[in-house]
Amino acid sequence: TTFEVQCRYMSEIAGGAVLAIFQDVTHLEQASQMRRDFVANVSHELRTPLTALMGFIETLQGPARDDEAARDRFLQIMMDEANRMNRLVGDLLSLNRVESEERVRPKNNLELTELLQSTLTSLRPLAEDASVTLSLNAPQDPVSLIGDSDQLRQVFTNLVENAIKYGSSGGIVDVVLTLSERDAAVRGPAARVQIIDQGPGIDVVHLPRLTERFYRADSHRSRQLGGTGLGLAIVKHIVNRHRGRLRVESELGQGATFTVILPYGAGEH
Ligand code: ADP
């Protein structure tokens, strides 16, 4: 192939540099494969609700034209499908934004306990609908750190929303904030936020791939609950931007614990 010819040629003139070039080309090939997969996934995710919408429009133009009860029901389903598309586009835009900002260090001061409290307050109606109790456990003293408060709010919203959605009805979602002098994950002082649910948990085989775009452990359930499959990918980019770490611990039938570990102290106060 052209590539091999090029390699042989390069090897004559550059010796050891060939391996590096080979790795670079492999990397480019992987990146473009990932881009193709992403475009295929987005198209598929958009086409599903779109096909449903077109089907209902056709039915309303034809057989159900004069059926008032059917019309109301179909319009509601159409609205749900349109909402699904809207959520997907919203999440795609968020993903794009957080990816492009990943290398820009956040520089605003924020108070973590307050941020968690107000995030939970806005999620209370959703929790009540699912008969889930939200509880927050945090230190008495304020926990100040440097970060992007809108983005961190999105992190905790996504994680607590998942805990409510996938957790068990009638159960509790615990949010626990703790500080530690030294956390190996961030090689220094850290603030840890754990989001713990009592739901069905996640099979360990899925854990390594959970933050990939559109990866779902339980595809049927995610779609039924209106998930886009992008929430954890967004979370991962924001946590990276804050030089933090995201951990997931779970076993089937044992609930799930998502932990966000953020650097704290030394320059972060
Ligand atoms: P989605 O929009 O599908 O919820 P996410 O990126 O937020 O997408 O999550 C990816 C997948 O991880 C979900 O589809 C679900 O299968 C699994 N998941 C996330 N959080 C939990 C949880 N607390 N309990 C069980 N499964 C979860």
TrEMBL record:
UniProt keyword terms in alphabetical order: Kinase, Phosphoprotein, Transferase, Two-component regulatory system
Phylogenetic placement of the source organism: Bacteria, Pseudomonadati, Pseudomonadota, Alphaproteobacteria, Rhodobacterales
Organism expressing this protein natively: Ruegeria haliotis
Protein name, as recorded: histidine kinase
Catalyzed reactions per annotation: ATP + protein L-histidine = ADP + protein N-phospho-L-histidine
Record-annotated Histidine kinase domain positions: 41-266
Single GO molecular function: kinase activity
EC number annotated for this UniProt entry: 2.7.13.3
